[in-house]
Amino acid sequence: MSWWSKFADRMERDAPIGRCTWFRLGGNARFLCHPRDAKDLSALMRCARDHGVPCKALGSGANVLVSDDGYDGVVIRLDNETFRRVDRHDDSVTLGAGVDLMPLAKQCSEEGLSGLECMAGIPATVGGAVRMNAGGRFGSFGDVVRRVTCVGSDGIVETIDQSELGFGYRRSLVGDRIVCSVEIGLCQGDPVQVKRRFDEYFSYKQETQPLADKSAGCVFKNPPGQSAGALIDRAGLKGARCGAAHVSHRHANFIIADPGATATDVMELIDLVRDRVEREFGTRLEIEIDIWRPEMAKACI
Question: Residues with Cβ < 8 Å from 218, sequence gap 6 or more?
Fold first, then answer.
C-alpha cells in the first residue's frame, strides 16, 4: 500500500502545477493534494514527513515560477471551502488561508473596513500573503495580522502571534509551516474615504505595472534605499530578452512570458539581469519570487 493511499480521493499524481501559476509555465508535481481541513492537512504533513516526501503550498501562484522539470514532492492546494471561510467579529476577521485577498480587500473597502486597501492590485491568497508579507508602497499585509494558525512539517497545529512572526520587507518567519487561517484586525472608517483609497491604489498599480501580462509581479526585492526596477532600467535592460521571456517596457522589475516561453527562459533572464546590475552598480539583486526547482525537493528526501 502506498503512503498516500488514505488521501487517494483528494490526491492527484503527476499534476501540471505550472499552469496554476500566473506565469503559466513549468512542469508537474509528483503529487497534488487538496486537504479537507486542518486536521486532514496535519495528517498529510505527518505522513509525508515520515516517508521523506517534502511538501509545499501553492496559493494563487502569483509569485511562483515552477521549473520546467516540475517539483518532486507534494504540492498542497487549500481550495476546499473550509480554507475559504471569512468570519467577522466586530473589528476582527478570521480568514481561511485559501481566501483570495484582493476581492476581500475590495469588499471591505466598500463597507468602510480599513486596513486592506494596500492589497489593491496585489493577487494573493491569504496564506501566501502571510508567508511573504505581501504589499507595496502603501503598506503590507503583516500590518493587520493579529495571529496565524499553521501546520508544521511534523503535523503539529500551532497558533502564532503577530509579534513572533518576524514580519519584514517581503518576509516572515512562517518557514516550512503551512498557513491554515489568519486573524486580522481592521478599523471601521468612512466607506467613501476607504473605497477612494482602495481605488487610488488600484489605479496606481494599473498605470505603472503590466497587470494584464503573464508575469509573477516584481521579480527582485528593492535593495535598501534603492529601487530594483530603476537599477534594471538604468542598466539598459528594459526589453532584454531570453528566448520568449522579456523584461517589461512598462516596469523593469517585471519579466513577461510571451507565447512559447519556458520557465528556463525566465530563469536565464533573471540571471542575466542580476549579473548586469551587479556589474554596472555593484548591487546583487535578491530574488523576490519563489522559484520551485526539483532539486529543492530531492535535497529533502
Answer: 228, 229, 251, 253, 254, 288, 289
CB 181 within 8 A of CB 218: no
| Residue 290 near residue 64 (C-beta atoms within 8 A) | yes
d(CA 296, CA 301): 9
Please tell me the pTM assigned to this model: 0.92
Q: In order of start, what are the domains of the chain with their CATH numbers?
A: 5-80+294-298 (3.30.43.10), 84-207 (3.30.465.10), 222-285 (3.90.78.10)
92 φ, ψ to 5°? Answer: -105, 135
The number of angstroms, rounded, from the C-alpha of 40 to the middle of its chain's C-alpha atoms is 23
Helix (H) or strand (E) holding 42: helix 38-50
| Cα dihedral sign, 205-206-207-212 | positive
Helices (H) and strands (E) in the chain, counts: 7, 18
pLDDT tens digits for 275-293?
A: 999 999 999 999 999 999 8
What's the pLDDT band for 212 if we cut at 50, 70, 90?
confident
Q: pLDDT class for 295, splitting at 50, 70, 90?
A: low
DSSP state of 21: S
205 close to 120: Cβ distance less than 8 angstroms: yes
C-alpha cell at 194: 476607504
Give the CA count within 13 Å in the CB-facing half-sphere of 20: 19
Cα–Cα distances in Å, from 268 out to 32, 88, 168, 241, 243? 27, 45, 28, 9, 9
